[in-house]
Amino acid sequence: MQPGILHRLGSQESSFVLVSSDQVALPVSGSMAMPRRLDQLLLRLMASCFLLQALSVHAITRHYKFNVVMRNMTLLCSTKSILTVNGKFPGPTLYAREGDDVLVKVVNHSPHNVTIHWHGVRQIRTGWYDGPAYITQCPIQPGSSFLYNFTVTGQRGTLLWHAHINWLRATVHGAIVILPKLGVPYPFPAPHKEAVVVLGEWWKADTETVINQAMQLGVGPNISDSHTINGHPGPMSDCASSQDGFNLDVENGKTYMLRIINAGLNDDLFFKIAGHGLTVVEVDAVYTKPYKTDILLITPGQTTNVLVTTDQSAGRYLLSVSPFLDAPLQVDNKTGTATLQYANTVSATARLTLVKPPPQNATPIASKFSESLRSLNSKEYPANVPQTVDHSLFFTIGVGVNPCANCINGTRVVGTINNSTFVMPSTPILQARYYSIPGVFTEDFPATPPHKFNYTGSGPKNLQTMKGTRVHRLPYNASVQVILQDTGIISTESHPIHLHGFNFFVVGRGVGNYNPKASPSTFNLIDPVERNTIGVPTGGWTAIRFRADNPGVWFMHCHFEVHTSWGLKMVFVVDNGKRPSETLIPPPKDLPQC
């Protein structure tokens, strides 16, 4: 059992107790004692049975209640009302073990429509509980509730949950910690203790007002005012004392595991700890080969577990989170900070060892990190990479410009995949698909760009896009390859692309335009990193592969919230298979109505 874990699960943990052979008392019939050899044999047999039962104990059901409420929050010497779960920012951590059933009752006490997405949870056949508004469900309206019900299947590590409507996830988010099954160790040395570290962004203004005003004017929204670590800008921020922010208390000579999540809206983030190395052991709830580094790159929606050995002298050491952007665009350049403090430090005001964040446009550092990650690909945790492709897709991603009579300059910046700007429906696509409701979507999302051009160049003269609620249909269990190609329309830019309902293997990556003849020769089909969110490099491409083994309706979109708002998104519809176990379950009775 992992140290420092069980006590946090408390009464939610299984009540099973391991019993050793010296604790077993066998009954005796009358005065006749069993022969010594038989007695020993039965003792061993019973001990083995107890052990097997403990290791194979059935998964349990974990119950959570999320009350969505407004509360006042003061940061950067400014107070505003924010939306929270259970009054917490970040929200509560959801703990489960691999194989557990999870039931979360979400009760909306706020004036906003709300949904919750369990980011990275596979949701095998349970797409009704995936959470994106108007894709799989209607929002939970004020005064209403919805019971999310899903099973954690074949996953262990760190994920996140967040609101999935408008920009509410700015403050409505939290961690999902999935522990291995009972008796199953980590594939790396067990840490002394673990800590959840949630990275985010903070606006002094109301974020719904920020995006609504930008959408009305047809321009980009205001950038955030600060980056945060566990909800705090930190001791180095404006209007803060040296004692402010998140503190991570450690002992010398121990190894700790940090579960790091980028819950920010619009910024890729670098993460460092002064004087300490980091060993990556898991990303997006998938084990990796250990990778030693002193810096992480985490895009919005990604998670990274790292081991940190406390091998420095007593004192206080700065944690930093800073933006990565290698495009000529605006970004919040504030560095969020926190403190790692050794237990034998004499005073909380002891000298603080600082850390220098990398340059904002440090492309070589970002590329090295992304290209260094590999799946563990062990016997217990194989990388089942599709070696052949049944369904090949080529998606250009970026922005366009459409006419807008009421906007500044008479135009609006929009997001696009294959020159298609997604229009959100008023009826959820999953319901329309299940009940065969006509007129909600069309199955004509293009498999390739309708117009070919120098993708990473200046782009075509006509920047206008097609608009519609288009989906792309996939046969059940097809092996799918998607080439994600950045474009230079207005500007090249990195894009963190998230696929709901699946993990995928990042088999290739490159700068410039993808070459269908030369680029595949660089693919890694042995141990590529497996993720649910991947940063497509600025002015470059990424190749992903996955198996469409999860029937339902699955959202794919840029996890920069501004780009999602602009329409940089699409939907896969995956057919049912032939067996009941390959078929989407019926909708729940309490599914919210629009």
UniProtKB/TrEMBL annotation:
GO terms for biological process: lignin catabolic process. InterPro entries: Cu-oxidase-like_N, Cu-oxidase_2nd, Cu-oxidase_C, Cu-oxidase_fam, Cu_oxidase_CS, Cu_oxidase_Cu_BS, Cupredoxin, CuRO_1_LCC. It is found in: Secreted, Extracellular space, Apoplast. Its EC number is 1.10.3.2. It comes from the Eukaryota. GO terms for molecular function: copper ion binding; hydroquinone:oxygen oxidoreductase activity. Belongs to the multicopper oxidase family. Lignin degradation and detoxification of lignin-derived products. This is Laccase. It comes from Aegilops tauschii subsp. strangulata (Goatgrass). The lineage of its organism: Eukaryota, Viridiplantae, Streptophyta, Embryophyta, Tracheophyta.
